[in-house]
Amino acid sequence: MDLFLYMRKGSHNSLKTKLKKIELLIFDVDGVLTDNTVWMGRNGDEYKRFCIADGMAVYIARRAGIPTAFISGRKSPATTARARELGVKDLFQIAGPKRLSFDKLLKKYKLDPQQTAFMGDDVIDIPVMKSAGVSVTVPHAPAYVKKYADIVTNRDAGMGAAREFVDMVLKAKGFNPVELTFK
Asked: Looking at 1-53, which runs of residues are DSSP E strands?
């Protein structure tokens, strides 16, 4: 995977250096881990489609010692269930500024913002994208969101975009996903 293809700000070497520093991966949910679709039943039940490859990325990142967190602007039982299934301990589902959840994560893990990566897709994600060491978005994001991204994935949201990014981080840090899976 050539990092040069993903670069949006700075040089290739600069991006690789930034990726090596990542100690926490943070993901928006709707529009990043899902395809931005929510199915609503007439009794209020909610359903979302999550990508198995993205879930494997969360698992592999954890095996590499890189924790993952989800920050969503809306509460959803489907998101809670997915986070639980993946072993994500840091799940924030709060309407309002995502920056507050981001700051809590920095404090909890005793990290500098430059040691974090955030993947988002909409206007509500911009404040965290501006603060994180590496900011990532997906192809469907509006142009005004993309301008804050270091990386725009080739894969679409809910279709392996998170996996694509996690693989970039692992490669930059010198990890082999195959070895991490079968240790």
From this structure: 24-27, 39-40, 46-47
